[in-house]
Amino acid sequence: MVNSNANALGILFPNSYDSLVPDLVGERLMASIPFAGRYRMVDFMLSSMVNCGIDNVSLIVRKNYHSLMDHLGSGREWDLTRKNGGLNIVPPFADKSVKVYNGRVEALSNILDFLRSQKEQYVVMSDTNIAANFDFKAMINEHIASGADVTIAYAKEEIPASARQTISTNRGLYYTLKVEDGTVTDIYINPKDEGIQDFSLNIYVVGREFLIEQIHNAFVRGYSYFERDIVAPQLDTLKVHGFLFQGYIARISDMKSYFDENMKLLDDANVDALFSSPVYTKIRDDNPTRYIEGAVVKNIMAADGCVIEGEVENSVLFRGVKIAKGAKVKNCVLMQDTVVGEGACVEYLITDKNVTISADKEVKGTDTFPVYVAKYQVV
Amino acid sequence: MAKEMIAMLLAGGQGSRLYALTQKLAKPAVPFGGKYRIIDFPLSNCVNSGIDTVGILTQYQPLVLNEYIGNGQPWDLDRLYGGVHVLPPYQQASGSDWYKGTANAIYQNISFIERYNPQYVIILSGDQICKQDYSDFLRFHKEKGAEFSVAVMEVPWDEASRFGLMVADENDKITEFQEKPKNPKSNLASMGIYIFNWDILKKYLVEDEADPNSENDFGNNIIPNLLRDGRNMYAYHFNGYWKDVGTISSLWEANMEVLDPEHSGINLFDENWKIYSRNSGMTGHKIGSDAVVENSMITDGCRIHGHVKHSILFAGVQVEPGAEVEDAVVMGGTTIKAGAVVKHCIIAENVVIGENAVVGAMPTETEKGVATVGSGIYIGDNAKIGPNAMVNNNVKGGEEQW
Fold first, then answer.
1. Which of A159-163, B239-243, B307-311 bottoms out in mean pLDDT, i.e. has the lowest?
2. Phi, psi of A313 (to 5 degrees)
3. Angle at CA of residue B37, ends B33 and B43, nearest 5°
4. Which residues of chain A have pLDDT under 50?
5. Do residues A142 and A208 both lie within one domain?
6. Which chain A residue's Cα is nearest to B44?
7. Structural domain of A347
8. Which residues of A lie inside 8 Å of B (Cβ-Cβ)?
9. Nearest of B332, B314, B331, B245 to residue B15 by alpha carbon
10. Can you give the pTM of this predicted structure?
11. ipTM of the prediction
12. Do A141 and A247 belong to one domain?
């Protein structure tokens, strides 16, 4: 697991695809959405970068980033408290932010001076809507070996149904690729095709100097999106390489997929795949989870700090969840510090942080439409 | 800048009565309560009491302990000035020596203490499970105008002769000290936690060191000397949960008491007095569809497919289908294979219990032993480990050890 440095710096866009899950990002952003019991979405890409020897990572945030800053702190848990490089959170400049940035071009144009002053030869860029144990090292190596200007990571995936159904682009752009012998020969923007596609992961490796030049040129022309406005139009002049990622991917594309991706982790094989290298997160110093006399549990994943006295089946419990006596919890994703009161009965429910389900209440969603309860709500 | 009070934590003990569990690590590093080690308790108490400077005196098998403490960050003890310091014996111009006794260990680190120029020094021991507010102890010490105070617990009279006892007057002033006496005059047992005025402690340490007949021990030498000189000595009553986990059975018992915080008094769930520990970094634990979990504590990284009853499982324990675990303390990284039966025992870290093996047994009228398996041991398939066994070496498949 120990790697020498990757000669690359990382850039994460924590607000990308916020619009896909408006409920979950009411008071946060994509990157700080809780996932898999004790993690936040950002932990996966951040840990992947660190595990691949990238120790200079910038997060260009746009809005609602309080929860992310609280989560990341000085970056110690990810070993990113460094004198050189380390963790760098870039909020929008107040005087420039009359309009906060939309695409990566605007985001990156804000940090051009920073990029110019860095030493790493390459830049890797990623969103945080995908949880994966991503091998950046392999991708950088392919980028170097192929002599490409730009390398795009893609996976064999179906386009999420929710993405296919929407026509408007304000829910974020997505791309599929045409890849021939490792070379990307076409990029399709918001296609509606069914079946398995070469679906872009929006993870890029580029030369740092190249990126600075491209962003500078694009920004003065008023372009917004790196993929749409820089890479796609220049496919005939640039060498664009495709890197096929074959590892486990959990992609958040709407509330339903959020629910499903949590549930998929009840399968040990999926957990082993997603956590093939360590994933770091903020420590909460919870005590171990306690199963009290009367608890009946089947097929669950639970973090520390839970107290379980009731019945729980097919569910993912985040840190500090309390299930009181006689409560029945089935097919639920319960985030941090959710309390399910005595005799309450819940099914197909997603509760955000600190939700309380009062005693004897019954709340049921369905497998195709889980009910979501927002932060601090009392049902 | 002087510190009001710093802590010196005695962590050099071998813990020889824990046998297999302390072959490769010092007693304070012994895992406890699902995700802790014993030393987490005094360290967390320090931080929660506002003490930010702690010297940890190590000697026996310090590797695990050193790595565990690291820079002290998990306990918020990574400080610019102060923080946690591991203090092994070291060579000096005048020669070098192991720590000869508890008092000598502090004596050899007088220069460490003087760097912080404290008014008070609290001496802690690294082998107790206890949640205690040392700032309240210091308040008592100051109010009494004491030069030395010792924390005491009331113990049943019929057990008193097992302890070091403080005889005190109605103002809690200590008038006599009895070390494991036949005829106890008091039932106030010393917890081995002392607050000294630093000038007094230093004076007596220097004097003790000059005495060639001294055992250089707090209980046997320093405290009797203080009494001899009529110093202001007071007994601070502590009535919370306190357990010396120096033996296999008391360690097992203390772990089991964690499962019943409502009655036993050791509550790890207290938001206002958190016990900190170094994190395993593992994913949430998983309980399979084929598992039964009753009245147990389970932490990150565990995968449970068998039957777990009234047990404590540490990080990354695997219980395979059909395995039975009851009244057991199973430490981190251990695998209990299919069909194995593990009862009334302590299994140390990274042990493999083979398929259908049997370890320990529920106590009977005549047989109440706690079977113990040391760390890294492999117990073969169908092996049988009796309730009094202390397993230090691998056991081959089908063999028996009693």
1. A159-163
2. -140, 140
3. 115
4. 1-3
5. yes
6. A285
7. 290-373
8. 36-38, 76, 266, 268, 271, 275, 278-280, 283, 285, 287-293, 295, 297-304, 307, 316-317
9. B245
10. 0.90
11. 0.88
12. yes
